[in-house]
């Protein structure tokens, strides 16, 4: 597929029409307050690993409603004092996988905390974190689970897990709490944008081809999953469009971006039909901190920059953590 979205000069000024709920801030303040009523209970169990250049810890901490969430913490084997740290969130359908698949950031001298994704991790990667919360009838996938109301929507739980993951990472002695950045690709990028707003004292964020942005445009522009799950749900549940749009407005990366006060490195791919570039630019253009950059990959689909974007992050991040 060649270019299908707005021209690049229009992308650079595009603004979303997503309507922000009046109680957006109070909704998230209440959600996080309720989560923090549960002891974080972060546990870091050393893993007997054949890896020689890094140490590995198997992590468990309390996420939304106190549910146990898994993760990995890796760090350079030579580390004996607090390090700058990257907290990473995973793309749609994936999980934390195996420790040896997460060596990049520890190799660059960072501590690296990878959060497992509740209820996912069976499309690729693998993981060990269930989602114990049920929902009303939903289209297969995660985009419509609990979509009848913001209180029950799946991403309320997942975004809360992500905030608690930052808190768990900061509790470890190898993590310098003042030098923590968040990053992730696709779904992980959308989570990163939310965390960048909900944890205002992060050092930086790096959302890569982020998902979960500009729902009003994304759901009518692309027919590719996962956004299409929402359209397929509404095809069956006729008459619920406004109800669904209201729920999604509490989770739209555009509204979180308007609260993003830390430096940010985004990326977008101009042939990306999974996360169309206009939806990415909607969040980037709304990002409140002027210290922001976006890498653009002209002829790429959802793979975006791949290792080239990782190289850009490795150049950009050390000056900010």
Write the layout of secondary structure elements.
Elements: H1 8-11, H2 24-35, E1 43-46, E2 54-62, E3 68-76, E4 83-89, H3 104-107, E5 111-115, H4 154-170, E6 175-185, H5 187-198, E7 204-208, H6 215-221, H7 227-236, H8 241-249, H9 253-257, E8 264-269, H10 277-286, E9 292-297, H11 307-316
Helix pairs in contact: 4-5, 6-7
Considering the chains and any ligands shown, give keywords for the structure.
321 residues; alpha/beta; nine-stranded mixed beta sheet; 11 helices; 19% strand; globular
Largest sheet, in brief, is: 9 strands, mixed
What's the overall average pLDDT, rounded?
Answer: 97
Structural class category: alpha/beta
State the strand order across the main sheet.
1-2-3-5-4-6-7-8-9
Strands, total number:
9
Shape estimate: globular
Number of helices, where a helix is a run of at least 4 consecutive DSSP H or I residues: 11
- The poorly predicted ranges are none
Distance between the termini: 38 Å
Gyration radius, to the nearest Å?
A: 18 Å
Estimate percent helicity. Answer: 25-40%
Strand content: 15-25%
Topology pattern, helix = H, strand = E: HHEEEEHEHEHEHHHHEHEH
Note down, in words, how this protein is organized.
With 321 residues, the protein is α/β, with parallel strands linked by helices. 31% of the residues lie in helices and 19% in strands. It contains eleven helices and nine strands. A nine-stranded mixed sheet has the order 1-2-3-5-4-6-7-8-9, sandwiched between helices. Strand 1 (43-46) and strand 2 form a beta hairpin. Helix 6 (215-221) crosses helix 7 (227-236). It is globular, with a radius of gyration of 18 Å. It starts with 7 loop residues before the first helix and ends in a 5-residue tail after the last helix.
């Amino acid at each position: 597929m060649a270019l299908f979205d707005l021209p690049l000069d229009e992308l650079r000024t595009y603004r979303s029409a997503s309507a922000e709920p009046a109680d957006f801030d109070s909704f998230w303040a209440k959600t996080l307050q309720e989560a923090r009523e549960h002891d974080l209970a972060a546990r870091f169990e050393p893993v007997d690993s054949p890896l020689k250049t890094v140490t590995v810890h198997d992590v468990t901490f309390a996420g939304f409603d106190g549910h146990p969430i898994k993760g990995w913490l890796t760090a350079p084997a030579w580390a004996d004092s607090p390090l700058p740290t990257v907290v990473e969130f995973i793309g749609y359908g994936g999980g934390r996988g195996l420790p040896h698949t997460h060596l990049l950031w520890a190799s660059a001298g960072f501590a690296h905390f990878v959060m497992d994704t509740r209820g996912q991790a069976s499309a690729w990667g693998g993981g060990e974190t269930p989602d114990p919360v049920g929902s009303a009838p939903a289209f297969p996938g995660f985009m419509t689970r609990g979509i009848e109301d913001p209180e029950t929507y799946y991403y309320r739980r997942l975004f809360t897990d992500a905030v608690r993951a930052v808190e768990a990472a900061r509790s470890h002695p190898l993590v310098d709490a003042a030098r923590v950045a968040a990053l992730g690709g696709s779904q992980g990028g959308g989570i990163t944008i939310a965390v960048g707003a909900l944890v205002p004292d992060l050092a930086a964020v790096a959302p890569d081809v982020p998902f979960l942005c500009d729902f009003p445009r994304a759901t009518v522009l692309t027919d590719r999953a996962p956004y299409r799950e929402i359209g397929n749900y509404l095809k069956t549940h006729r008459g619920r469009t406004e109800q669904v749009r209201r729920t999604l407005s509490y989770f739209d990366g555009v509204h979180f971006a308007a609260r993003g006060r830390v430096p940010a490195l985004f990326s977008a791919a101009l042939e990306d039909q999974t996360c169309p570039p206009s939806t990415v630019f909607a969040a980037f253009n709304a990002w409140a901190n002027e210290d922001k950059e976006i890498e653009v990959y002209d002829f790429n689909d959802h793979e975006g920059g791949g290792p080239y974007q990782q190289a850009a992050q490795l150049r950009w991040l050390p000056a900010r953590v």
